[in-house]
Design goal:
Elements: H1 2-27, H2 34-70
Helix pairs in contact: 1-2
């Protein structure tokens, strides 16, 4: 159940970012350019980078606590 909620939240954030990207192209009358397609791909990938930063912070904090407890 928790995994489904996480995937749903991820999908909603990615869909909202993709909608904004598409609306921006529509407002500028640009259509689908290479940069717009790269932006759409980035909309799908950026939450993963956020997750990696959060995991890095958690792991760094855990390792700091372990090294202090060993000293």
């Amino acid at each position: 159940m928790f995994e489904a909620a996480i995937f749903l939240l991820y999908g909603l954030v990615a869909a909202a970012a993709m909608a904004v990207t598409m609306l921006e192209g529509w407002a500028n009358h640009d259509g689908l350019t290479l940069h717009r397609l790269a932006g759409l791909l980035a909309c799908l990938v950026w939450p993963l980078t956020l997750l990696l930063f959060i995991l890095h912070g958690c792991i760094a904090r855990l390792l700091t606590r372990r090294s202090r407890s060993m000293a």
